[in-house]
Amino acid sequence: MGFFLETVIGGLMTGMLYALVALGFVLIFKASGVFNFAQGSMVLFAALAMARFSEWLPSSLGFESHLLANVLAFVGAMAVMVVVAWLIERLVLGKLVNQEGVTLLMATLGISYLLDGLGQTAFGNDIYKIDVGLPKDPVFLFEKVFQGGVLVNKEDLYAALIAALLVAGLSLFFQKTNTGRALRAVADDHQAAQSIGIPLARIWVIVWTVAGCVALVAGIVWGSKLGVQFSLSLVALKALPVVILGGLTSVPGAIIGGLVIGVGEKLSEVYLGPALGGGIEIWFAYVLALAFLLVRPQGLFGEKIIDRV
Q1: Is 124 helix (H, G, I), strand (E, B) or coil?
Q2: What is the distance between the alpha carbons of residues 39 and 111, in angstroms, rounded to a whole number?
Q3: What percentage of the chain has pLDDT greater than the value 70?
Q4: DSSP letter at 89?
Q5: pLDDT value at residue 306
Q6: Taking a C-beta distance cutoff of 8 angstroms, is the pair 42, 82 a contact?
Q7: Where are the beta strands (DSSP E) in 129-262?
Q8: N or C terminus: fewer CB in 10 A for the chain?
Q9: Are the C-beta atoms of residues 16 and 261 closer than 8 Å to each other?
Q10: What angle do CA 9, 12, 18 make, to 5 degrees?
Q11: Dist. CA 188–CA 168, nearest whole Å
Q12: What per-residue confidence (pLDDT) applies to 304?
C-alpha cells in the first residue's frame, strides 16, 4: 500500500504540472476559439527568458544576490511575454478574425516555429539552468503507518503547490473581477459581448497575456526540473491529451484531466509496464485521449456543440 500511495502521489503531482500547461490551451480557446499550438513554444520561450535574464542581469548591473536576480529575471520575462502576447494578437490573430478554424490553426503553428527560432537567436541553444530555490531532496511521509514510509520528491510537491495556487488565482480572477466576467462573456458569445460594449481586441490581448504568464510559470517549474532545453516545448504535447480528456472549454476539466493522466500513466508504467515491456508512460495519455475522442469527443467537462442546419 505504501508503494501504491507513493506512485499515486507522484502521478498527482506530475498531473498538476501537465494541467499547468493545458491551462494555456483552455484559456485561449475559451476566449477566442483558437486552438493555440504555440503554447509549448511559449513555455520554452518564457523559460529561456527567465534562465538567461537570471544570468545576464547580475553581471550587467553588478550585484550578486541570487534572490534579486530571480525576482528581476521574473519581472523581465513577464514583460517579454506581455509584449509577445500583444504582438501575436495585433500582428497575426487580430488580422484573421472570422477566418476558418484551419487558418487560425496554421497561424498558431507558424507562431510556434517563429518563437522557437527567435528564442534560439535571442537566448542561445544550450541547456540552461533555472534555480528558484525549489528543494531537490526527497522526504519520507507516513513512516509510522507504512514500513519505510512514502517517498515524495520535495521539488514535485512544491511545483504542484505552485500550480494549485495559480489555478486558484485564475479561478478567482474569472469569477470575481470585471475583466474576468468580460472574458467569460466573450467565451460564451462573441457577438453578444460586442453588442454590450466589450472590446474583443482588448479582451484577446488580455487572455493572450494571461496565457503568457501561465506559460512563464510552467516554464520556470519545468525548467527547474528538467533544465531549459528545446525539447521542453514537447511538454505541451503531453498537455494535448489533458485538454482532450478534460474538455477544451473547461478550466476545471484541465485540472481533472491532468490528474487523471498523471496518475494513470504512473500506475500503468509501474504495474503493467513489466508485463508489456515498459514504455507505457510514453503513449498512455494519447491512447486514453483517442478513446475519449471515440466515445465522448467533448471531454469530461467540455460543452457539447450541436449545429442545426
Answers
A1: coil
A2: 9
A3: 94
A4: I
A5: 56
A6: no
A7: 138-141, 150-153
A8: C
A9: no
A10: 145
A11: 21
A12: 64
Alpha carbon distance 292, 245 (integer Å): 6
Portion of the chain with pLDDT greater than 90, in percent: 12
Partners of 128 in beta bridges: 228
pLDDT, mean over the chain: 83
CA distance 81 to 98: 25
Task: Give the pLDDT of residue 261.
Answer: 92
Report whether pLDDT(78) > 90. Answer: yes
Nearest residue to 237 (alpha-carbon basis) of 286, 281, 291 = 286
- Greater confidence, 233 or 138? 138
- Give the residue among 37, 8, 293 at the shortest CA–CA distance from 142: 8
Map residue 147 onto helix, strand or coil.
coil
pLDDT at 74 exceeding the cut of 90: yes
26 close to 251: Cβ distance less than 8 angstroms: yes
Q: Taking Cα atoms as reference points, which of 135, 116, 110 lies closest to residue 48?
A: 116
The answer to whether the CB of 45 falls within 8 A of the CB of 84 is: yes
Q: Which residue has the cell 450541436?
A: 306
Half-sphere exposure of 162 (CA within 13 A, CB side): 23
Enter the pTM of the model.
Answer: 0.85
Helix or strand or coil: residue 8? helix
- DSSP secondary structure code for residue 217 in this structure: H
Residue 254's pLDDT is what? Answer: 86
For residues 117 and 258, give the distance between their C-alpha atoms in angstroms, rounded to a whole number. 29
CB atoms within 10 A of CB 76: 17
- What gap in Å lies between CA 112 and CA 71, rounded to an integer? 27
- As a whole number, mean pLDDT of residues 257-272 equals 89
Amino acid making up residue 271: Y
Q: What are phi and psi of 153, to 5 degrees?
A: -80, 120
Question: Which residues are within 8 A (CB) of 12 and not within 5 positions of it... i.e. 6 or more apart?
Answer: 160, 259, 262, 263
